[in-house]
Every structure is written in structure tokens, then in C-alpha cells.
Amino acid sequence: MRLLLVLKNSRKTECGAKQVLIRCRVRAAPFALLTLSLASAVAAQTPKCATPSKQQLIIYRAGSLTRAFKPLEDAFTCQTGIQVKDSAMGSVDAGRQITAGGQACDLYAPADYLDIDLFMKPAGYADFDIVFAQGRMVLAYSENGLAAKKLPPIAEPGAFHPPDSIPKAVAKWYEILTMPGVAIGGGNPFLDPGAYRGPMIFQLAEEFYKAPNLYNNLLGHVVVAGPIAAEITLGKQLDFQFTYEHNARATASTNPDYRYVDLPDEINLSDPAKDAYYRQHAVVVLPGLGTSRSARTIAVPGARVAWGITLLKDAPNRENAVKFLQLLLSPAGTASLNDNGPAPITPAWVSPADFNKLPESLRPLVKNTKK
């Protein structure tokens, strides 16, 4: 029996030349005019934005979507005048803020699409889940930090030039992570998929390498940052950290000391074809949403790393939310994800059970398929 993690619930945008270019092709109505106008507004040297209005769009989303969503939100406001109120945080935390916390929200975009399927839909807060982006987990470290601590090399020989060349982890990387004094950075797994995917990786590693008690041994090296998280840094207090590849790639582009290695697909949660394997061998149990309609605890199985988005059933700005979803699912949204990560799923997909619950204007933009 796995050690399951169970705790009580923790608790004038301006359109300018500095915006990231959003490449866009004209597609069939209903979103053609919106994406064409957005492309024109962003591409022009002196774009003329719509007069700011009092209309709002409220988004609660994963922090790992910041670089992709910011240019889309800026362009959306520039074109429509609609003001975007964007809140980025751990995805499970965001779900609880919306539900138990009573925060108004139009769009909820977690880093694990299962947070919609397992938390929001059963409790009656959402009808559908659009899976629009994907990624993988990598093992990050400080090159100077490992040298200073005289730890063995974690990477196989090879050039580090992301995204084209990323070394693989050495065959017994897990033995390095369980050496005395080694600290693995982590977050609160009851608030954030990026944190609960760490224990999932530990479970998958124990199964893949047939190493008895590896899950517990790795878990014993995890250090969760406290209130002053900035004081806990990789290469100093921390030796390793599991993180999303697109976030690691962005950090490495500005920090020459930052490195990361790739793990086998059986462990890095990247392969859709291995979803059944992930689900069979990894699970965490989290507190529910804390509302009368939510289960007390919810088991979240391992699954491919994929981001989802949904329109809340009681969204106060429903029409504005649908317009933003049209943009996200258009070539403009694909371009922003390609430039900033995570990688887009084109077309985005929904389950057959969810497809007919989508607003009609979104149905041509997604693929109706089993997950």
C-alpha cells in the first residue's frame, strides 16, 4: 500500500510594441474577425487599442501559464477594451478560492486537467474540460551547487542546449537524490499539481527501477519552502527540483548555472500512451474543495502532464470568457503557447461526454475524443 498524502485543507493594460507577436491566420467564423483584428493590432507599429471599458474577464489559473497568457490577455484587452483580472497560483488552491472561498471567476485553468474532472465537475462548478496544452517534468539543479557539494554527475555526457539538446539523467540518478544531506525542493502538494507530481514521480521511479522503499526514501529528502520561499534557492539550500520543462527552459535561458536532465518517459509523465501505466502506479489523495458539494478527500491518479481550462457554470462574464476561449484555441493562442510554453495541443480536445456541453461557438475549435 502506498503512503498516500492526506492533510486538511491549507488554506490599464496597454497594447504596445513590447508585446509578444501573436502570429495568426484567418479562420472560419465565429472567431475569424477577432483573431484577424488581434493580429492586426499587435503587428502594427502604432496599434490603436479599443477604449477601455468597465467590462471584466476573471481568470484563475496555474502560474505555469503566465508567459503564455500574458500576451494573449494584453491583446484581448487591446482589441476589446475588456479588462482582465488574472490570478495565478497553485491550481488546487485556485479551485478552492473559487468554490469554498466564494471568489467570482469566469475561467479556471489548472496545470492538471484532472483538477477540473475530479474536483470541479463532480461538485457542480463546471460542465466541461478543454485540454489545450501538454508538457513533461524534468529534474533541475545548479551546476555550481552540485560541484560545490561534490555530488556525482547527474547528467549523462552530452551538450546542454535546450530545447534541442537536453542530456538524460544517469541510470541511477535516484541514488544521488537519496545520498545523505541532499535536499529536493518541493511545494505544498495539497495546493499545487507541480508539487504533487513530485510524489507521483517517486512512486513511478520505485515501480520502474524495482527499488524497494524508494518512494519513502525520496520523500524523506523533500524540503518544502516556508513563507519566505525566496530564501530557499537551488544550488544553496536545495540540490534538485522537479519542474515543468518549459519553465526550466525559460530559467536556463537567463541563468547559465541552471541545468536540467530528462527522465525516462515511464517517470516524467509526458507520454499520453503511458497514461494507463501512470494511473496504475501513482496516486495522491488530496482534501476536497471544502464545500458541501465536494467529497471530503479526492484521489488524483498519475496522468500525462496536460493543462485544462473550463468556463465556470456561474461565470459572471460568460460572453467575455467565451471570446477569450476563442482566442486561446485559435492560431494566435497556439502561437503564444509555442513561443512561451507549455506546448499546445492542436486542436485542443474534449471528451465525448463534454463536447455537447461546450458553447456552440467553441465546438469547431476542438477535437471530440476519448482522453
Structure description:
This protein is 33% helix and 19% strand. The chain has helices at 32-43, 66-80, 91-98, 114-120, 143-148, 173-177, 193-209, 214-219, 245-254, 265-268, 275-281, 318-328, 331-340, 352-355; strands spanning 56-62, 83-89, 107-109, 130-134, 137-142, 184-186, 222-224, 240-244, 258-261, 283-287, 297-301, 306-311, 343-350, 366-368. The strands form three sheets. The chain has a seven-stranded mixed β-sheet with strand order 2-1-3-12-4-13-14, with helices on both faces. It has a five-stranded mixed β-sheet with strand order 7-6-8-5-9. It has a two-stranded antiparallel ribbon with strand order 10-11. Helix 2 runs antiparallel to helix 13 (331-340). The longest helix has 17 residues, at 193-209.
Order of helices and strands: HEHEHEHEEHHEHHEEHEHHEEEHHEHE
- State the total count of DSSP E strands: 14
Dominant shape: globular
Please name the CATH architecture of the largest domain. Answer: 3-Layer(aba) Sandwich
Oligomer: single chain
Helix content: 25-40%
- Low-confidence region ranges: 1-33, 35-46
Q: How many domains make up the 3D coordinates?
A: 2
- At CATH level 3, the topology of the largest domain is D-Maltodextrin-Binding Protein, domain 2
In terms of DSSP E residues, the strand content is: 15-25%
What is the mean pLDDT?
A: 89
Radius of gyration, in angstroms, nearest whole number:
21 Å
**Which sheet architecture does the biggest sheet show?**
7 strands, mixed
Enumerate the strands of the largest sheet in spatial order, edge to edge or round the barrel: 2-1-3-12-4-13-14
The CA-CA distance between the termini, in Å, is: 27 Å
Query: Which class of secondary structure composition applies to the elements?
Result: alpha/beta
SS summary, helix count: 14
What's the CATH H-level superfamily name of the largest domain? Periplasmic binding protein-like II
The first-level CATH class of the largest domain is given as Alpha Beta
